[in-house]
From TrEMBL:
<feature type="transmembrane region" description="Helical">
    <location>
        <begin position="405"/>
        <end position="425"/>
    </location>
</feature>
<feature type="transmembrane region" description="Helical">
    <location>
        <begin position="183"/>
        <end position="207"/>
    </location>
</feature>
<dbReference type="GO" id="GO:0005886">
    <property type="term" value="C:plasma membrane"/>
</dbReference>
<feature type="transmembrane region" description="Helical">
    <location>
        <begin position="473"/>
        <end position="496"/>
    </location>
</feature>
<dbReference type="GO" id="GO:0022857">
    <property type="term" value="F:transmembrane transporter activity"/>
</dbReference>
<feature type="transmembrane region" description="Helical">
    <location>
        <begin position="431"/>
        <end position="452"/>
    </location>
</feature>
<protein>
    <recommendedName>
        <fullName>Amino acid permease/ SLC12A domain-containing protein</fullName>
    </recommendedName>
</protein>
<feature type="transmembrane region" description="Helical">
    <location>
        <begin position="29"/>
        <end position="47"/>
    </location>
</feature>
<feature type="transmembrane region" description="Helical">
    <location>
        <begin position="100"/>
        <end position="122"/>
    </location>
</feature>
<keyword id="KW-1133">Transmembrane helix</keyword>
<dbReference type="InterPro" id="IPR002293">
    <property type="entry name" value="AA/rel_permease1"/>
</dbReference>
<feature type="transmembrane region" description="Helical">
    <location>
        <begin position="159"/>
        <end position="177"/>
    </location>
</feature>
<keyword id="KW-0812">Transmembrane</keyword>
<feature type="transmembrane region" description="Helical">
    <location>
        <begin position="67"/>
        <end position="88"/>
    </location>
</feature>
<feature type="transmembrane region" description="Helical">
    <location>
        <begin position="352"/>
        <end position="374"/>
    </location>
</feature>
<keyword id="KW-0472">Membrane</keyword>
<feature type="transmembrane region" description="Helical">
    <location>
        <begin position="246"/>
        <end position="270"/>
    </location>
</feature>
Amino acid sequence: MSSQAPSKRGPFLREATGLVREISPLRAMFFNFCAMSGGIVVLNYIYSAFYPASPTFGLSSLDLAQILSALALIPYGLIFIAMVSRIPRTGGDYVFTSRIISPFAGWLETWTLLFANISIIGFELLQISYVTQAFFVTMGAIYKTAFWSSLSSFFSSPINQAVIGILLVALMGGLGFTSTRKFTLVTAVFAVLGVSGILLQLALFSFGVSRDAFLANFQSYTGVSASQVVSQAFNLSSSPLRLEPISFAILGPAVGFALFNLIGYQYSAYVAGELKGNIKRTGLVSILGSLWLYTAVTWILLVPVVFSVFGYSFLHAWAYLAFNAPSQAPLSGIIPQSAVLGLIAAPKLWPIWFYVTFVADVLMFSLGPVYIFMMSRIVFAWSMDRIVPGWFAEVNQRTATPTRIYVLTLLGGLIFFLMSFPPVGLNLSSLAYYSILLSALTWILPGFNAILMPFRKKELFEMGVLTKRVAGVPVLVWIGVIWLAFILPIYVSAFIQPLISGFFSSPTWAYATNTGVSIVALIVVVGGVIYFGSKYYNRRRGVDIDLAFKEIPPE
């Protein structure tokens, strides 16, 4: 049911969105926190094994990349705050880019982002089973009872993993039929639970865990010593682990992974039409607040403590074996999440480690509905501009939310998840590269929006923040230049250059398929067909959709 009648003459589908402004600054911040966190409660350190290097200032390569990326993302966040202060409408980058650069650029930017996010939802659903299984495998190794072994077997079964994923998707669907106010309250609770799990680990690892006890227990429960694990990793017959001084060849891709990890801290901008109060303040609190809450509790506080307590080389070695040679890794090749480390070090505290694992699962689950909520608003904005049918912009009168789009995007995430099982067998763990490629425009175009707005939308520019000039040039332009000076070299060195090299060193089709380039190309082509097909269809009906892009969307 739509709360507004369609507009037959105006450039937009109707004269009002039907959405309600009821998201507070704090809830918007927690919304963003859930969007970027995923499994960081317990999976925070293990991905350093993808980018092995000796410590720099006591930090792993990924830890360093995360902190540097968080600093670099300040100007990116300021760009979104500047845009939201001028165009506080639902749709985020789609609305900004389509009004400043071009309608097609705005469409393609968010069309590709939609598919990147859908794939990540499928990845997180699978991670929930992996993280939970790791806890129960460790409990079985410690207590050697049939109960814990049966639980670990249950979560390792592909059929059970699929069923669990379907049930979790159903729960996400239930959240989609609540009001925005209730939805953001639930996600705020999820975020608080996640932070509590991080802080609880920080306290126990700092004051309640003995390294000597961990090393003794580890050998007792796994049958191998920590030094043997390190030796195995450093002496693998293929691709042995090496911890050498960090170089840009390692740091560049690590920063790319950090961006993949941090995307989402700006997602409150996509629901700007539902933010209440002072939009500038809400944007500042939600965007930069979530970025630095996440960075501080995880990468500045927790991760260095984990490496310090359990050993830098040992943790890299265990994670490296789990990813590259699981048959040689301890505890049947499980993911050595940080709750497992705590469980081995202090098994009597297993209820606490179970709680930590549970809140990690909750936070991984929360990413799904938050992503879907955000994506539904992008599709809603497309529909308001008549690019996709008006059916997508129907607002439920009871909840004041576009529930139809929520359900459709949720089904997209479920399809990606189920494709990870036979007969398709899609490797969701390899989708990071694919997702980063699909997100390229989302990372790059905001910089051009910042540079072009003062010149292409002068009146709009004067209405918002960051209007002062330095050397005769608006501050917003300088911020856009700074951001592009960071993100363009990262994409070229970490993704584009290896991509080009790979095409020349491998069979073209095989390489394009393995890296996801072929899928990305297909998505872009389909997006172009839909956009220009929509323009043609609307023109035949006497509607010029280009007129909508000359105005700010209705509230």
